[in-house]
Every structure is written in structure tokens, then in C-alpha cells.
């Protein structure tokens, strides 16, 4: 089951990324951010699925401490990058709808790539301090990880917790998860107020571009809450329930993104339709 899911995630996301790269009419900030989000999904999945597939085939599931730390680092880096990418997308929609005459000036190509870079660099800098500066030097009292991959449950293996590390972790959570969410909510409230004053056609176009982003945000926020629930209530969860919830967390979002952006974004859908029609015609001839 895992291998077909992983192949589908990579193929579906990479197909839309390729369409955005190839077609010039998709070289707009909104589609560039979508490509960044889909690249993030592919890298997020690649961090988890190959090791998970290896564990399913092996008689004994083993991972080195260094490899586990690396998986934690990549998992939380790309998880937080998702929030920052969604925040950048909400800002793009805010400028497009609320300041249309200034859009070309504000959302220049340079600004777009700076925002993309920051969406990956800022989480990496935060998480590397926690993983390398804190966890790497902590003493282990247990060597059995309750989970199907390395995440925050790694903290339960340490002999003693660090208050400084916990404080910095909370600061990191606020900076690269909660703060972007608050910013997204603020921008969409502003968009809603502006759109509400416009005609039906304006509301339709705004909903067409903003709804996919909101669906992805809601979906991803719920999955991250899953991760917190699994860690905090670990002792109260059976292994089967924990396995199912964790599997949902790593599966739904990478599968959800290409469907949302492939079907709900009109321009991407048109190119996808042409691609599949051409493939079907070519295979039947």
C-alpha cells in the first residue's frame, strides 16, 4: 500500500510542478507559490516514505540516533515551511484583490523568490538549533520509539528535559506556525471585507483563487493538531490508533494538495485536461 501511495504522491505533485514550469501563462506569483508548496510536499514525503517502506519489509525496525535526528529535522522544517508558504500565498491574494493597481510593483519576481527562500530558510534555522543544539547533546534513557517514524516522541527517550530547549521550542512554534496562521486569518478577513463590497463576479473570482488555499490550510492545521495529540496523549492511545492517526498525518496532505490545486485552480486544470486528453489520444492511436 505504501509504495503505490508514495509513487502517486510524487507523480501527481511533480506533474503539476512541471506544468507550472513549462507553461509561461503559469509563471505568475500565485502559481510559483503553488509549485513551492508541491515541492515541499514531495520532499516531506520523501523524508518519511522510503524509510517506512524499508521498515515494513524488514523483520526488525531499526534507525540510528543520527538518522532519527535528521528525520525529525526534515519533518518539522518542511512542516513549518508549509505554514510560511501558505502565508506567502495569502499575502499574494491580499495584494491581488485589495491592491490590484499596485500588484505588479509589490509582487515582483525578486520579492516572490525572496519569500520562497525565507519560507524554507527560516524554519531550517529554527529547527536546526533545537535538533543539533539541544537533542543531539541529550542523554538517552530509552531506545524504543513509540511511532512509525521519528517526530516529537523522540523527546520521551531522553533522561531529562531541558527548560531552555522547551522555551525555545515554544518560541519556534509561535514564530513559524502560530504567527503565520494569524497572518493568514488576518489577510483573508481583509479580503472578505473588500470582496463583500464588490459584485458577484468579483466574489466568484476571489472564491475561485482563495478557497483552495483555505482548504489546504484547514486540512494541514488539523493534521498538525493530530501530531500534538499523539505526542501529548501518547500513554492513552493504543498502538493501532496511534498508527492510524500518524498514517493519516503523513498521507492526507501530500495527496490532498495536487487534487485541490489540480481541480480547483482553473488554469492548472485546463493544462491537466489537455495533458490527459493528449496522453489518451496518443495511447489509443
Care to give the gist of this entry?
This protein is mostly helical and about 280 residues long.
Per-chain topology:
Blueprint: H1 2-22, H2 29-57, H3 65-98, H4 103-106, H5 109-134, H6 163-196, H7 200-232, H8 239-264, H9 266-284
Polypeptide structure, described:
The protein is mainly α. About 80% of the residues lie in helices and about 0% in strands. It is built from nine helices and no strands. The protein has helices spanning about 1-20, 30-55, 65-100, 105, 110-135, 165-195, 200-230, 240-265, 265-285. Helix 1 (about 1-20) runs antiparallel to helix 2, helix 1 packs parallel to helix 8 and helix 2 packs antiparallel against helix 3 (about 65-100). The protein is globular and about 60 Å long.
Largest sheet: none
Number of strands: 0
CA radius of gyration? 21 Å
Average pLDDT for all residues: 80
Question: What are the key terms here?
Answer:
single chain; 285 residues; mainly alpha; 79% helix; 0% strand; globular
Amino acid at each position: 500500500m505504501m509504495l503505490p501511495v508514495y509513487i502517486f504522491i510524487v507523480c501527481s505533485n511533480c506533474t503539476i510542478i512541471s506544468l507550472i514550469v513549462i507553461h509561461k501563462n503559469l509563471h505568475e506569483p500565485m502559481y510559483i507559490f503553488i509549485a513551492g508548496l508541491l515541492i515541499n510536499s514531495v520532499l516531506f514525503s520523501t523524508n518519511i516514505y522510503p524509510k517506512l517502506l524499508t521498515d515494513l519489509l524488514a523483520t526488525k525496525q531499526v534507525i540510528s540516533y543520527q538518522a532519527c535526528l535528521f528525520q525529525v529535522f526534515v519533518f518539522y522544517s518542511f512542516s513549518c515551511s508549509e505554514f510560511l508558504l501558505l502565508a506567502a500565498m495569502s499575502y499574494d491574494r491580499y495584494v491581488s484583490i485589495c491592491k490590484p493597481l499596485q500588484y505588479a510593483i509589490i509582487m515582483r519576481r525578486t520579492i516572490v523568490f525572496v519569500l520562497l527562500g525565507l519560507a524554507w530558510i527560516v524554519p531550517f534555522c529554527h529547527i536546526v538549533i533545537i535538533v543539533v543544539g539541544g537533542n543531539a547533546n541529550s542523554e538517552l534513557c530509552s531506545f524504543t520509539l513509540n511511532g512509525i517514524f521519528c517526530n516529537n516522541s523522540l523527546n520521551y527517550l531522553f533522561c531529562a528535559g531541558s527548560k531552555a530547549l522547551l522555551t525555545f521550542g515554544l518560541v519556534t512554534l509561535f514564530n513559524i506556525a502560530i504567527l503565520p496562521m494569524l497572518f493568514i486569518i488576518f489577510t483573508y478577513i481583509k479580503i472578505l471585507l473588500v470582496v463583500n463590497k464588490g459584485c458577484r463576479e468579483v466574489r466568484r473570482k476571489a472564491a475561485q483563487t482563495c478557497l483552495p488555499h483555505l482548504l489546504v490550510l484547514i486540512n494541514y492545521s488539523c493534521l498538525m493538531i493530530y501530531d500534538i495529540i499523539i505526542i501529548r496523549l501518547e500513554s492513552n492511545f493504543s498502538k493501532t490508533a496511534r498508527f492510524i492517526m500518524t498514517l493519516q498525518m503523513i498521507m492526507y496532505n501530500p495527496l490532498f494538495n495536487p487534487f485541490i490545486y489540480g481541480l480547483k485552480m482553473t488554469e492548472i486544470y485546463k493544462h491537466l485536461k489537455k495533458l490527459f486528453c493528449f496522453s489518451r489520444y496518443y495511447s489509443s492511436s
